[in-house]
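Issue: ligand-bound run for S-adenosyl-L-homocysteine - logging full I/O for the record.

Environment: standard queue, default settings, no custom constraints.

Inputs:
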Amino acid sequence: MGKKEIRSLTFEELAGEITALGEKAFRAKQLYKWMHEELADSFDEMTNLSKELRRTLSERYDYTHLELVERKISSIDGTEKYLFRLFDGNVIESVLMRYHHGNSVCISSQAGCRMGCRFCASTIGGLTRNLLPSEMLDQIYQIQKTSGERVSNVVVMGTGEPLDNYENLLRFLQLLTDEHGLHISQRNVTVSTCGIVEKIRALAEERMQITLALSLHASSQEKRRQLMPIAHKYELQDVLDACRYYFECTGRRITFEYSLVGGVNDTKQDAKELAALLADLNCHVNLIPVNPVRERSFVQPDRSVVLAFQKELGRYGINATVRREMGRDIAGACGQLRKSYMEGQEKKNG
Ligand code: SAH
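Outputs:
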């Protein structure tokens, strides 16, 4: 590694580089098609390019791909969890979920995470590194190839904070939605963030049609701080203002994620405060009964408490759904497949 990763170049950039090599412009189209439509894993597969050109390209560029380490399939609903190895040995996980409206892939944006949310397994070992645009894309490419099924929706909700890897995220979004690649509709892409205010505003100004999901998890600044260290950096009102700005710029309704934690943020009073907070926002609330993580003592509220919370929000005119638990038999909380694999490796090594 050290050369440019060719699958992270946008079509325009690639065309510029290929013509600079003295090649005809249509070669860039062929190459782009091999990489982002045929989903080739290496230059060797590109049989309509001369051996010489393939050699030149491999001297100039890196072409890395993910290797499948493990694939777990739920016998309940067909959800699939994938563990992939990156070129440098790091591992990441991704999930394929099957819905009536199509297949959705949840990807990781970083190896590890430095946001430190108290209930989240992905952040326990800290941040290892950012993922390249090509590494975010390849999660979808490899899943599409392995499962043999088309992916229509992408959610950036796996390990990592996407807005903490902002430049690579933007490039990934451009490649993913490019008409010469998988051409996934911007409306079918969701980016979830813990709330990095200036990056939410920057993303708004890109004026893409992607959905922003904001991890709220509390109805007051004080409670949010107990669950999410990032709340020490940004005031809740500033986060909500950034969400309003996102809606103004894009016209896209915001999704607020709210993990319900037993005895922490699940009372009717919490629901009432949450409703007041969101009253003037065009939004939708996604309630996620917290997934217990071994290292943490948080518990899921009873089902009746979850439904009462949802009902209470509804009373104040806030539209809320309870996230359906997918792949209960293979899941565990997000980030736990990667974590248990890494712990296994550590034991082996000593
Ligand atoms: N960093 C991004 C995306 C990653 S997590 C973000 O913070 O939004 C995707 C969602 O799952 C977030 O809302 C996150 O807070 C939530 N989450 C993480 N661990 C969880 C757990 N154990 N139970 C329920 N939700 C969890």
